Amino acid sequence: ALGKGSDLEKAFATAALVYNNSADPKGKLSKAETKSLLQTQFWAFIQGQENKPKYQEIISALDEESENKIDFEDFMILLISLTLMSDLLQEIKKVKTTK
């Protein structure tokens, strides 16, 4: 759908597709599914973050037994939050090109 889109548009389209492929028919993910998706699809950003208090807070919220499910908006906020605290972000900031 975004074959001619910008790199940023493609990145967000990919995030939406990954989310949608994992979401239930109502477009939501359980907390356990969200945690699993992060571990399989976002591992480079979350590796090495285990000792950071904010990371522990986020993951413990996903570990809580709850009926609450996560919608796409909350999922994107979660991805952005994890990206901002990631050590990988510091490495990415040093790169000047996407090609």
UniProtKB/TrEMBL annotation:
Protein name according to UniProt: SNTAN protein
Ranges for domain EF-hand: 50-85
InterPro entries tied to this protein: EF-hand-dom_pair, EF_hand_dom, S-100_dom, S100_Ca-bd_sub
Lineage top rank: taxon: Eukaryota
Species for this entry: Scopus umbretta
GO molecular function: calcium ion binding; transition metal ion binding
Transmembrane spans: none
